[in-house]
């Protein structure tokens, strides 16, 4: 049952609101003074507060500020007989959900309150899901003993002493950039605040801006109420922009303005909203090549590239491959209540020889399948034919390509094309299933296919 606090010095109105909201199924607490409300508020976190702007012992705007600082998810609705445009703007800037002038219909209060509680539930649900996902991540989860990994983790460790910076994670898909971003947040001074993640390739261009910055009621046809964007939800915490290179150029300009000012406007809004966030972005593209082909703004690149970190591909990490394999064999054996599975000598060597174009994500998915389908000892015959037939350095290697004078961007694109074709083959041409196999959204797959295969057509 939602808990509602009502604070107003008019006894008749207070009692009327109490009876009406109780009849609507809310747990209602009535207060005539800020002093009484403050004593209650120290021990409770109401879902919403109906707050009179003028009180006998306090200023309503000051009380609004205290409520939002203490419990940001509590929705505050201002009610007053002394309203004007200036006080309304001040209340909304201070975090009020809405502003209603007296006299008003009780039905109107009920409708606004329902919208406020819906917004509160959505914020709490998003927070709950994200907390379960990121709060346990740490550098210990980034398994590896190779020199490349040690150097990376040593650099990341230095970031724990920094209050705020902008970090760019570079590396192929599936290398663990998202895990590293969560670990960086959890070891920072912002660990107790939100880690908000958005995949810039997972949404159509027209929805990405509204997800990032939100919108005001009436901003467009379906905007029936205000939407809080992910940038705003990340205030005081960390905003993780995954696959940032897939962001359309028009939105890149707006992101640049936000990075320069740390403020933004909701779509359809007139006022600037200022937030304090640490920005971590990630990409599996070579941004230097994207700059050359006018696919990414140079000024945005320089803003994002303050602290660049390169996450190495699995094929360059040597025996880390077997460390990760053992880790996932143990994990999935426990998960599926099976005897502890292990690779035999030939299977282990095949894992070392294979180039792992899908990196850790590919290895994890394969180990899960092997634990489910195979016996306690996994042999070479149990492995996919694509791995069985691999001899050392048989598959394309970026270093080889560069040594022959190859173009890095083209080599990466070719690897992406091969992975997509293989996924489409395995899924029988079903794009949604191919996207699932690749670990990306259907929107991201469609975007990549348009770019990669259009490039092929242009060259033919």
TrEMBL record:
It holds the Pfam family Sigma54_activat. The modification 4-aspartylphosphate is found at residue 52. Residues 3-117 form the Response regulatory domain. GO terms for biological process: phosphorelay signal transduction system; regulation of DNA-templated transcription. The keyword ATP-binding applies. The keyword DNA repair does not apply. Gene3D superfamilies: 1.10.8.60, 3.40.50.2300, Homeodomain-like, P-loop containing nucleotide triphosphate hydrolases. Keywords: ATP-binding, Nucleotide-binding, Phosphoprotein, Transcription, Transcription regulation. Residues 142-372 form the Sigma-54 factor interaction domain. Coiled coil: none annotated. InterPro entries: AAA+_ATPase, AAA_lid_NorR, CheY-like_superfamily, Homeodomain-like_sf, HTH_Fis, P-loop_NTPase, Sig_transdc_resp-reg_receiver, Sigma_54_int. GO terms for molecular function: ATP binding; sequence-specific DNA binding. This is Response regulator. The lineage of its organism: Bacteria, Pseudomonadati, Thermodesulfobacteriota, Desulfarculia, Desulfarculales.
């Amino acid at each position: 049952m939602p808990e509602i606090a009502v604070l107003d010095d008019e006894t008749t109105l207070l009692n009327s609101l109490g009876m009406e909201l109780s009849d609507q199924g809310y747990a209602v607490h009535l207060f005539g003074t800020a002093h009484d409300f403050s004593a209650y508020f120290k021990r409770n976190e109401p879902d919403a507060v109906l707050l009179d702007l003028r009180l006998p012992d306090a200023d309503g705007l000051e009380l609004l500020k205290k409520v939002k600082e203490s419990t940001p998810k509590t929705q505050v609705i201002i009610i007053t007989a002394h309203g004007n445009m200036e006080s309304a703007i001040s209340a909304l800037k201070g975090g009020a959900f809405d502003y209603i002038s007296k006299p008003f219909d009780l039905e109107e209060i009920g409708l606004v309150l329902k919208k406020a509680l819906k917004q509160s539930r959505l914020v709490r649900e998003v927070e709950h899901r994200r907390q379960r996902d990121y709060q346990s991540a740490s550098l210990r989860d980034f398994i590896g003993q190779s020199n490349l990994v040690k150097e990376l983790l040593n650099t990341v460790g230095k970031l724990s002493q920094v209050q705020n910076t902008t970090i760019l994670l570079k590396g192929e898909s599936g290398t663990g950039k998202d895990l590293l971003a969560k670990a960086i947040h959890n070891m920072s001074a912002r660990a107790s605040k939100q880690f908000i993640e958005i995949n810039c390739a997972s949404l159509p261009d027209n929805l990405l801006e509204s997800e990032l910055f939100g919108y005001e009621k009436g901003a467009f046809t379906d905007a029936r109420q205000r939407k809080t964007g992910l940038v705003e939800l990340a205030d005081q915490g960390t905003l993780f922009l995954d696959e940032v290179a897939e962001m359309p150029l028009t939105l890149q300009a707006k992101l640049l303005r936000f990075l320069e000012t740390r403020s933004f406007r909701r779509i359809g809004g007139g006022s600037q909203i200022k937030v304090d966030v640490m920005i971590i972005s990630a990409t599996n593209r070579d941004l230097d090549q994207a700059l050359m082909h006018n696919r990414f703004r140079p000024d945005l690149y320089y803003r994002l590239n303050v602290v660049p970190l390169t996450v190495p591909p699995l094929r360059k990490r040597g025996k880390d491959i077997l460390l990760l394999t053992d880790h996932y064999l143990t994990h999935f054996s426990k998960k599926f209540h099976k005897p502890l599975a292990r690779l035999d000598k030939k299977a282990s060597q095949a894992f070392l020889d294979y180039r792992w174009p899908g990196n850790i994500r590919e290895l994890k998915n394969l180990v899960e399948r092997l634990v489910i389908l195979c016996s306690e000892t996994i042999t070479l015959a149990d492995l996919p034919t694509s791995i069985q037939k691999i001899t050392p350095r048989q598959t394309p290697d970026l270093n080889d390509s560069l040594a022959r004078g190859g173009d890095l961007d083209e080599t990466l694109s070719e690897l992406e094309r091969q992975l997509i074709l293989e996924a489409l083959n395995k899924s029988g041409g079903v794009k949604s299933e191919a996207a699932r196999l690749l670990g990306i959204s259907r929107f991201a797959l469609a975007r990549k296919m348009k770019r990669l295969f259009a490039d092929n057509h242009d060259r033919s």
